Amino acid sequence: MNLVDLPSDIQNMIEKRKRAFSYYHEELIGEHRFLSEDQTIFQDAVIALSLGKNILLKGPTGSGKTRLAESLSSFFGQPMHSVNCSVDTDMEALLGFKTITQNDGASRIDFIQGPVIKAMEKGHFLYIDEINMAKPETLPLLNSILDYRRMLTNPLTTDVIQAKETFGVIAAINEGYVGTVPMNEALKNRFIVIDIPYVQGEILKDVIKQESKLHDEKMIEQFVRLSSDLLVQVKSGIIPEEAASIRALIDTCDLAVYMDPLRAVRRGISDKLEEEREKAAVVNIASTLFK
After folding, report:
1. Looking at 195, 216, 240, which one is the last position of a domain?
2. pLDDT tens, residue by residue, 29-88
3. Residue 220, C-beta contacts closer than 8 angstroms, at least 6 positions apart
4. Nearest to 96 by CA among 29, 141, 54
């Protein structure tokens, strides 16, 4: 089912969101196109957001989770505020912080809004990247904005913020990576989960043409084959998932425009790995393709 085949009530919800931001032109909105063999991924994300649901994008690094979030922002014409989580992500990184300012010689304390409060008050999208990298004690702050209440009592100011109707949350997660922690079930249950698989085949060719500087058809074919062969090694446990990252592949394709492709593979993929045997496995595969 194409987007044009969506039920009329969903299409009305989409149009209502687009009209809400038809006047708004901000650098947060970009022209991005998410590509996937599974056409239902984008459609299901659109439906969920139109219904006021939060969506959680699950997939390996470089699979296009951020690109999907950007494409959704562009589709709705709705600005998006981002949080990149890490072990250092705390309440201030999410909500904002207090600072002392000078006004006509007098000092006062102002509150600088963080991405969560900005998105709530403006009715924009909030994108939380690597949500399972944040400290577990930080994330419960988000519970009340992710359920039917759509509100937050700011512990830094005691203000109560009620999100605008168009406010929506998109989060992304890489499971099993170093530094990540299992998501609390109460938090995960507040999301609609969408799996983002690796891009392969003809779709990957289109991604390379769209995202990289490489235009040599034969070499693009070789890099698509490289990606496929690396995935086989990942599934066999010989090399880690990051070796098959589409993001790393795009970087490598860019380098291959200006250097020998085998050297580009070393710089863009194999040298990022820790184990010598893993590096050797990647180089051996690449050597059979780029003679």
Report:
1. 195
2. 444 577 777 888 999 999 999 999 999 999 887 778 888 999 999 899 899 999 998 888
3. 205, 208, 209, 214, 253
4. 141
